[in-house]
Structures are given as structure tokens and as C-alpha cells.
Amino acid sequence: MTDMPIRAVVWDIDDTLFDYTTADRAGMRLHLAAEGLAGRFGTVERALAHWREITDVHWLRFADGETTFQGQRRDRVRQFLGTEALDDTDADAWFDRYVAHYESAWKLFPDALPVLDSLAPDYRQAALSNSSLHNQDRKLRALGVRDYFETVLCAAELGVSKPAAAAFHAACDALELDPAEVVYVGNEPDIDAGGATAAGLAGVWLDRGRLGGRPELVTINDLNRLPALLRGDTRFGAPSPIG
After folding, report:
1. Per CATH, the architecture of 8-19+107-242 is what?
2. What is d(CA 147, CA 191) in angstroms, rounded to the nearest whole number?
3. pLDDT for res 240
4. Rounded-to-integer distance, Cα 166 and Cα 156, Å
């Protein structure tokens, strides 16, 4: 327990502020149709599920330092298409065509902007993502929220990914704050909330799907609960779901 006040909120981006899952599914639906692949996996839903499984596997490889950011993209394409011999140029082009459809579906969660506004007078804000700065900075600008964040840090440039303590400490160092003065909010219980807590920050799990089952984590079910959580100092009490 610490008496240090919370001075900053550091945010995860995808599936926390930005509705990545919906945009990814919508973009891939359009991409499958454009590429003539809609029936390749039996149904579009099976194709979407297969793409998400592949994405999760290769994101973990990237987070563990087994591949580069661009490498995980290429590997996702090759595995999805079942063409391991596909060269880098063709894999990149296929992924770029998907990205164009994906970007057309970009949206914030409805609770994101009101909460960013609500916290702005009292808390400094930053973002820490396991993606790349090129992607996330451009995304935040396109969504109209980049100016809320003093800094945006990403694993591809840092050379270290969440849940490693060094990733969270890099965000604290950028803000020139002690980890105990910083809250980290994200949708992944282990990578985000658990990793942040282990690194000395106050980790908050945004459990939008109400999965539960993690009583050791401070948990909220929507972002509208965050201001009261912070201002009530409930992070210093027993972890409990709020929502």
C-alpha cells in the first residue's frame, strides 16, 4: 500500500479505447469478399474465427520477441492463406489491402471520449500499446484523440512488450512519475492489469465482456466507472469488480 496520489492514467488502445475487434471483423469481411475468399473456409464466421486465432498466436510471438512487427503480419497472411512460400512483397500487399478495409471501420468505444474528457482536468494521460507507433499514432489522430496523450509508446519502438515491467516503466519514465503514481487501464487481465500491477503501477482490468474470474484484479466493466474508481482511491482497497 502507498500514500502516493495517482497523477496519471496510461491507456492500452486496442479493445480498450478503440473497438479493434469490431473493426477487424468488419474489415476482414470486406477483404474476404474483395479477394474472393468468402467461401474458402466454409463460412465467413469460420474465416473470421480462424483469422483471430492466427492473430492471437502471432501477436504473442511478437510480444515474446520471436518475430518483428512486420514479421508477425507476414506470418499471419501466410498461415491464413496456407501459402508458406508467399514472398514478403506479396504478403505485405495482401495485408495492406486488408488494412484499407479495416481502417474504414475504425471507431472509438462510446464511453472512451467522455472518460478522456472527464479525466483530463485532474490526470495526465498517456498510451502504451503492444503495436507500433506508426500505426497507433496515426490511429489516434484519425480518431481525434491524440492530443489527450502526453506521449504514446509502442512495443515495436521500445523493443519490449507488455507484460514486461520494462514496458510499463518506460511509460512512467516518459511521464517522470513513480510507478505508484500511475494507473494502467487495459482489456487484457494478464498482459495489461496483471503486468502493470507486477511492475508497481495500479493495474485496472477493463472487463467489457464481464468474463470475471479474476478477483485479485481491480476490475471495471465499462470506462464510465473509472473516474469514480480513481477519485475514491479504491485501488488501495480490496480488488473488486465495479460495473
Report:
1. 3-Layer(aba) Sandwich (3.40)
2. 25
3. 42
4. 13
